[in-house]
Design goal:
This protein is of the alpha+beta class and 481 residues long. The chain has five domains: 3-75, Orthogonal Bundle (Arc Repressor Mutant, subunit A); 80-199, At1g16640 B3 domain; 201-270; 294-425, MM3350-like (Structural Genomics Hypothetical 15.5 Kd Protein In mrcA-pckA Intergenic Region, Chain A, Roll), CATH 3.10.290.30; 434-478. It is built from 17 helices and 24 strands. The chain has a seven-stranded antiparallel sheet with strand order 18-17-19-20-15-16-21, covered by helices on one side. The longest helix is centred in the middle third of the chain and has 21 residues, at 201-221. The N and C termini lie far apart (68 Å). The relative contact order is 0.08. Residues 433, 435-436, 443, 462-463, 465-466 line the site of one zinc ion.
């Protein structure tokens, strides 16, 4: 065994990164890693790529795009960000480590190693203190009460009381932080009075929007419906047009104010996300609807509903804005010949993610055909659908029969029209009863005998009469045209 085979992948990556001082094609970088650590894997390049994505993003490097990486050491040098001074920070002269430095500190760096400098380049004494903090998140309050831990809730902070006094740092001022050396953990602090900030409000808003859009775009293209902040935030900063210029607001505040996203302390989610614990504490989030005008309640929503896995089976349905998902469920059961009194059903709103063909599903609730269900009372007009929008409808949570529903148009009602109604359906492609065919008769098959089909290795199709005569007690399924 040679020396080269003994180092870990992580060490090989670090050695390769040390030789890079700017953006580098992933392909080239992977080859470099492999020269430090040759591999006998079937596809060594792919294995290194996977490792980089899973273990190194946000820790040592980020992706500028799919084909290009940059060491964080390089990308973060000179980056500037803002800490908003709260009343507690001003009165005690402290700068909390989290969330101020969250995602800007190197992975596993020791706080004692962090160095802070003033604008003149003079080192500031770094003293880490504990700061009492009241948890604001109700979930956190609940957890701490459960653990009887409410008293000891502290966060770590840098005690900068001398610097705060000398600079007359007040509540609502900003501290502008510049990353001098990301690897070593060296930062420069600059005081900005609130009035100076106010003059640059528009510029700040623009920066905030750019950061929010970058993060949201990453969320939209993420495989799962969430992003680790530790990976996403450094990546977004590396992709900003001017990360070393005048800073916008802190990323945690930017996300907090963005209606599309939320942050749970670790990951960035879509705003409607609820953690499993929140679901237990608060129950499933009920979908609420806005007020509906009389005009909206009158309007007709024209939908095309099709079987998810057999789009050739479709019905066009009209329903009035003031009618409910329970009404919609009723007509859908009728249209697709589902049992009107048995089995629950449910609706989801499908929201397109990014520009591709992936959707996230917003649960609108379920419908009990005998009355009730969490979604039963929602009005069609309250769902805020626009032509082209999609719903998913599932009949029977056991058999899980999925339907895809597209809103085609919103039109005015016909005088005297009764809604909901089925206005069109696919042209049926009838199949015929094989027993009757054998006897020289032509009758539409309405059933498929699963039992006989399995036995005979072909589809056995029968009409009502032949079913009763020849397949008594067999397991059969109705044919939908
Ligand atoms: Zn027959
Ligand atoms: Zn049979």
């Amino acid at each position: 065994m040679t020396q080269k085979e003994l180092i870990t992948r992580g060490e090989a990556v670090r050695q390769a990164l040390a030789q890079v001082d700017g953006p580098v094609p992933v392909k080239e970088f992977v080859q470099q890693v492999l020269t430090f650590r040759p591999s006998k894997a079937k596809n060594p390049a792919a294995s290194i790529r996977n490792y980089l994505r899973a273990e190194e993003v946000g820790r040592t490097l980020v992706y500028l795009d799919r084909q290009t990486i940059i060491p964080l050491r390089v990308a973060m040098k000179g980056v500037r960000f803002r800490a908003h001074v709260t009343r507690q920070m001003a009165s005690r002269g402290i700068l909390p480590v989290h969330p101020t430095f969250r995602c800007f500190l190197r992975y596993k760096i020791a706080l004692e190693d962090v160095r802070l400098f003033d604008v003149a380049g003079n080192p500031l004494p770094v003293r880490v203190v504990k700061m009492k903090a009241k948890p604001t998140d109700p979930l956190e309050v609940f957890l701490r009460m459960a653990l009887e831990d409410l008293e000891d809730f502290v966060v770590l902070a840098f005690d900068l009381s001398g610097w705060f006094r000398a600079n007359k740092v007040r509540r609502d001022d900003s501290i502008l932080v510049t990353i001098l050396d990301w690897e070593a953990g060296h930062f420069r602090l600059e005081h900005e009075p609130a009035r100076r900030r106010r003059r640059r409000q528009q510029e700040i808003e623009r920066k905030n929007q750019e950061l929010a859009d970058l993060l949201f775009e990453m969320l939209e293209s993420a495989q799962k419906e969430s992003l680790y902040a530790s990976q996403a935030v450094p990546t977004a900063y590396a992709r900003l047009s001017d990360p070393k210029g005048y800073p916008g607001d802190h990323w945690t505040e930017v996300i907090e104010r963005d209606p599309r996203m939320k942050w749970d302390g670790f990951a960035i989610h879509y705003s409607e996300y609820m953690s499993p614990l929140e679901q237990i504490l608060y129950g499933e989030k009920e979908v609420t609807e806005g007020p509906i005008t009389r005009a909206q309640a009158r309007q007709i929503y024209r939908f095309k509903a099709e079987l998810w896995h057999r789009a050739d089976i479709w019905r066009r349905i009209e329903i009035q804005g003031g009618q409910t998902l329970a009404d919609f469920d009723g007509i859908l059961r009728d249209a697709f010949e589902h049992d009107p009194f048995d089995h629950l059903s449910g609706f989801w709103k499908l929201v397109r993610r990014g520009r591709g063909n992936r959707f996230r599903e917003i649960d609108l609730g379920d419908i009990d055909p005998l009355g009730g269900g969490s979604g039963a009372g929602l009005h069609i007009a309250g769902l805020e659908l626009r032509p082209g929008d999609l719903l998913k409808y599932v009949y029977d949570f056991g058999d899980w029969i999925e339907h895809r529903i597209t809103l085609e148009e919103i039109v005015e009602p016909e005088p005297g029209g009764e809604y909901p109604r089925i206005i069109a359906r696919n042209k049926p492609r009838y199949r015929y009863c094989q027993s009757c065919q054998a006897k020289g008769r032509k009758r539409i098959a309405t059933w498929i005998c699963i039992e006989c089909s399995n036995k005979q290795g072909r589809e056995v199709l029968v009409c009502d009469e032949c079913l009763a005569a020849e397949h008594e007690g067999h397991f059969v399924e109705e044919i939908l045209y």
